[in-house]
Specification:
Layout lengths: L1 H26 L17 H12 L9 H5 L2 E12 L5 E7 H14 L2 E13 L2 E12 L2 E13 L4 E10 L15
Parallel strand pairs: 1-6
Antiparallel strand pairs: 1-2, 3-4, 4-5, 5-6
Length: 183
């Protein structure tokens, strides 16, 4: 019985020791490695959308701060991509924030990627917003155009992205005229 109690005591305090070591290691991290999004950027819808596009655009092997990227999104944010195969079948691919960051870490280390906004509309009401945005993206894969749909919330201090849904025009469907920059 005494041996069991001793084991439970050690087990109980080992969690506290691990927590202490984790906190101690965080305090030893250099300040530049804990980058936060531009505090002014997250105060506006345009700012947080532009910050997101700036983050995901870059050359392969670039140093991406995924911790900073995560701070643009609600903790339970969803990333969804609607793909179209050559037969017209549609498939929705869904990821959470951590899955997207993990895949992004791999993809962005292997190839260049750049995405910029063509046009957008913003609808906002009572702390929620929807942004519908046309984009052009290019990289090692070539180039494409498509549409992004962002959903955001305002917590009284700043905007958070709660989800992004996007699709591209690889199936030949043109970008809607009111979102295109072509004449």
């Amino acid at each position: 019985m005494r041996m069991k109690n001793r084991f439970l005591q050690i087990y109980k305090y080992s969690g506290l020791i691990i927590l202490y070591l984790f906190i101690f290691n965080l305090s030893e991290m250099p300040a530049q490695s804990i980058k936060h999004p531009d505090t002014n950027a997250v105060k506006t819808i345009d700012g947080i959308i532009n910050e997101t596009l700036a983050f995901i655009s870059g050359e392969s092997k670039s140093s991406y701060n995924w911790g900073s990227f995560r701070l643009l999104f609600a903790a339970d944010a969803q990333f969804m991509y609607l793909s179209h195969d050559k037969d017209g079948q549609k498939t929705l691919h869904t990821m959470n924030l951590e899955e997207f960051a993990r895949l992004g870490m791999q993809a962005y280390q292997q190839s260049d990627f750049s995405e910029y906004e063509l046009k957008k509309t913003i609808d906002e009401y009572n702390g929620i917003a929807h942004v519908f945005q046309s984009y052009e993206a290019s990289g090692d894969f070539g180039s494409e155009r498509g549409m992004n749909s962002y959903q955001l919330i305002f917590d009284g201090k700043r905007w958070w992205i709660t989800s992004i849904l996007w699709t591209d025009n690889k199936n030949g469907i043109p970008i809607p005229e009111n979102y295109s920059i072509d004449p």
